[in-house]
């Protein structure tokens, strides 16, 4: 995240009176991330993360907060949201929808090994299986409809060769048979910076604010494109095989998923090329704002088109 909206300690101290988590000791803005304003909050009772939601419509937020509670209840290492004294997860602070979740320990691993990838694959399958019993439903907010709209917004800023790449990829993706793929709750942003490691074990999975209902394979593709890609954008065979085999052991891939794997790797690359291009060309105003390079995912998309990787199982 970034900090788009400042929060004064006095304001937060007063707001925390709505909760049963003690008094404010420390407040720190967090510079990582791109979507919301996030803060580490320490109270006399514990350590929490405060999120002020900048762009997500308020009506969509209960889906994410209850999903985190659901997954935590199913034993996944997901931060539980904190209910206020009225038993509500969602409040309002600095004129923004706001929520507190537990702060989990551990740190991100940006140079993962095959063992890390194996654990992430198993965890992602667990998340998909636990998601099957989640009672609420909301579409993937960065699914096909968003992709078309985002492409129209960023296209005028792109040079001619990138416009051609974008047009061709949108046409290719429009022909993919998503209905043939198993669907469910997906995290949709399971990048290395959204997993906290406690030694070799996953201590936390965070940032569920892009979650939604979509093809489970899209989530696998997003995850593989980030966790298993080398510095030059190619897939590392050992890490890819480790992640996919661990996932497959918990939720076996279907024939339709095998057939559509190269297309979904491309869809996942397109999604992050578009969101990064939009953040770059049409930035939101803010105090500390992180913009990730769009070229990285443009190039991953080009590579996945040039050499479609088979599902190695
Ligand atoms: N529950 C948590 N426990 C520990 N650290 C967290 C937690 N939630 C967020 N963070 C920290 O905050 C950073 C940004 O959070 P993130 O959810 O990725 O932001 P955004 O909401 O903008 O997507 C993470 O990289 C991590 O360092
Ligand atoms: N993972 C995405 C952007 C979302 O950022 P996050 O820090 O909020 O997860 C990317 O790399 O483009």
From TrEMBL:
Documented EC number(s)? 2.7.1.39
Catalytic function, reaction form: L-homoserine + ATP = O-phospho-L-homoserine + ADP + H(+)
Q: Where is the Aminoglycoside phosphotransferase domain?
A: 27-253
Which InterPro entries has this protein been placed in? Aminoglycoside_PTrfase, Homoserine_kinase_II, Kinase-like_dom_sf, Pseudomonas-type_ThrB
Cite the Gene3D superfamilies for this sequence: 3.90.1200.10, Phosphorylase Kinase, domain 1
From what superkingdom does this record's organism come? Bacteria
Q: Which GO terms describe its biological process?
A: threonine biosynthetic process
Look at the named UniProt entry and state the broad enzyme category this protein falls under: transferase
| Keywords per UniProt | Amino-acid biosynthesis, ATP-binding, Kinase, Nucleotide-binding, Threonine biosynthesis, Transferase
A Pfam family (short name) is APH
Give this protein's Gene Ontology molecular function annotations. Answer: ATP binding; homoserine kinase activity
Pathway participation: Amino-acid biosynthesis; L-threonine biosynthesis; L-threonine from L-aspartate: step 4/5
Question: Which CDD domains does this entry report, sorted A to Z?
Answer: HomoserineK_II
Give the protein family.
Answer: Belongs to the pseudomonas-type ThrB family.
Supply the PANTHER family for this chain.
AMINOGLYCOSIDE PHOSPHOTRANSFERASE DOMAIN-CONTAINING PROTEIN, AMINOGLYCOSIDE PHOSPHOTRANSFERASE DOMAIN-CONTAINING PROTEIN-RELATED
Please state what the protein is called: Homoserine kinase
Supply the source organism for this entry: Aromatoleum tolulyticum
């Amino acid at each position: 995240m970034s900090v788009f909206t400042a929060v004064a300690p006095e304001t937060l101290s007063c707001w925390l009176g709505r909760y049963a988590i003690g008094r404010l000791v420390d407040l720190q803005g967090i510079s990582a991330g791109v979507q919301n304003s996030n803060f580490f909050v320490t109270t006399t009772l514990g350590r929490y993360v405060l999120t002020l939601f900048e762009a997500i419509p308020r009506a969509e937020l209960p889906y994410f907060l209850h999903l985190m509670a659901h997954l935590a209840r199913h034993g996944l290492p997901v931060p539980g949201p904190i209910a206020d004294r009225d038993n509500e997860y969602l409040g309002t602070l600095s004129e923004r929808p706001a929520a507190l979740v537990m702060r989990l320990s551990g740190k991100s691993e940006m140079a993962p090994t095959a063992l890390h990838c194996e654990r992430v694959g198993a965890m992602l399958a667990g998340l998909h299986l636990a998601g099957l019993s989640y009672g609420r439903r909301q579409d993937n907010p960065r699914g096909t409809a968003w992709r078309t709209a985002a492409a129209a917004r960023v296209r005028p800023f792109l040079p001619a060769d990138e416009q051609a790449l974008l047009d061709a990829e949108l046409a290719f993706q429009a022909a993919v048979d998503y209905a043939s793929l198993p669907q469910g709750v997906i995290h949709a942003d399971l990048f290395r910076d959204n997993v906290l490691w406690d030694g070799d074990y996953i201590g936390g999975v965070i940032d569920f604010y892009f979650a939604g209902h979509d093809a489970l394979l899209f989530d696998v593709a997003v995850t593989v494109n980030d966790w298993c890609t080398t510095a030059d954008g190619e897939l590392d065979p050992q890490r890819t095989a480790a992640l996919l085999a661990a996932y497959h052991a918990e939720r076996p891939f279907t024939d339709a998923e095998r057939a559509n794997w190269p297309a979904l790797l491309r869809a996942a690359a397109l999604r992050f090329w578009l969101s990064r291009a939009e953040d770059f060309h049409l930035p939101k105003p803010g105090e500390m704002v992180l913009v990730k390079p769009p070229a990285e995912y443009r190039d991953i998309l080009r590579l996945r088109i040039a050499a479609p990787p088979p599902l190695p199982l």
